[in-house]
Amino acid sequence: MPFGRRKELPSHLWTQCPDCGEMLFNKQLARNMNVCPKCEHHFKIGARERIEMLVDKGSFEERDPLLAPGDPLGFTDTKGYPQRIEAARAKSGEQEAVITGSARIGGTPVELGVMDFEFIGGSMGSVVGEKLVRAAERALAERNPLVIVSASGGARMQEGTLALMQMAKVVAATARLGDAGIPYVSVLTDPTTGGVLASYGSLGDLVLAEPKALIGFSGARVTDQTIGERLPAGFQRAEFVRDHGFVDQVVPRSQLRDRIAFFVSALRPTAGEVRWSL
Amino acid sequence: MRDPIGTIRSGATALGLRRAAEDNGDLPADGLLIVDVSGISGRVSAWDAVKLARDLKRPHALDLIERVFDRFQELHGDRSFRDDPAVVGGIAHLDGHPVVVVGQQKGGSTEENIQRNFGMPHPEGYRKAIRLYRLAERFHLPLVTLIDTPGAYPGPEAEERGQAEAIAKSIETLTRLRTPVVAVVLGEGGSGGALALGVADVVLALENAIYSVISPEGCAAILWRSGTEAERAAKALKLAGPDLLALGIVDGLVPEPRGGAQNDHDATARSVKAAVVAQLDRLSPVPVTELLAGRYERFRRIGVFVEPETAPAAPRRTWWKRVLGR
What ipTM score was computed for the predicted complex, to two decimals? Predict the structure, then answer.
């Protein structure tokens, strides 16, 4: 993969910020939610770390942790697909590219899905699709808001058209939430591109993004090749996407939890004290 | 398929096994549709399918619309930005009854392809499609979509105008559209840009059409780091008609004339018409709530995964790691 947090965190003790060049102690960086204290560069973080950051302490209950991919195409490039899965598990410590579960955020019960870019570029195959659909179906059954935090290069090539179809599968499930008046908040983190952005990533009732996250339909490589240096400044960054009208807010990591808590409690379908209700 | 730790739960089942016929209802209603992989003899190689699907002489959306439908009246524009020539659509009669048809339009020549942007829609193309989907829904007309695109246009203007959002909305609109939808992949089904027209009650493909998560060239460039491995990538991606049928991506293949659809547009159109009419006859009496539930299930069950009953054993750590407790 072209980028990953391991590359950004090469040493055990300190890390150079790729944006401002500042040398940062890892402990200091971790205390600051992996955000550079000098320039606010948001480092990529894993799904577990993200969950810990977002949910009320001890409230997360993971669901479907063991769901594992098959090899429906018998896909082999330079490596077989099962070997790639094994390597991704060793590298990320996770079973797949999304972790789902039930939790509370600021007291509001939610269904949560958090993607991990470290697992084959956060790519969406059958397991990601199935886990997210189950999360959305739980949200519908429990009437709890759904929160999905994306970090993905798009659909997983090794599962071919089956991976492509996961876009429709997940969107069909999130669309049902809309019909039932259950809020869905989509959070886009660095990077969210391709099939994930072109499906559930873009479809939250609210779409939030982390500062400077790469957010685009085509990978930067594709667009770079087609037009080279004519790309506008900040192209495909969170602020650019917000300014063009496709993201509601760019929210710094330190405020993300409180912001989501506010939105889900405001939109929550069974709010306790409703004064103006229709 | 070997399955050591659990049961394979999948709608698509393993490759080589067609989705169970009972799932499909009585799909082969017109008797011409290929719905069984074992019935396919002498299939072309994946790369030949790619070449056939991209053949300039292959009938494109308007070639077929002209032959399959009567009284087609093209409708232009997304009511917001402009008219995208890579997406065509309008109201027409099919076998004497009004329907809405939306398709992606490639050119038959370089000149025409430049005008049509090689069938690569901009966001406004998808927004035009959504507008026409809504038109079909509002007036209870069946919707027929014709898929033929290398993919959505990846340029910077498309990004600025929300290509991803346009595709996502198009998919979302189709998942809940309260009218029967039949999609036909005519040539190239290029990734999300194709799926934006591909969420339907019945998804058909012409025999030599392809449908893929990424172009073979793109896949080769990423995984083999070489554009020249496209042929191998095409094979690995299982993107040709018989594979799509086996995986449950499409419900049936529409037979093409000998040698391919490019040889006889009229015969191809007759095949497409028979297939679409038969499917709409089957779908139109279905109450809309059942229709939507069926459409949800059709996509809900796609995917292949393993669900173990118990946790897999932790990977064995080397002795020094165990001693050191790391």
Answer: 0.93
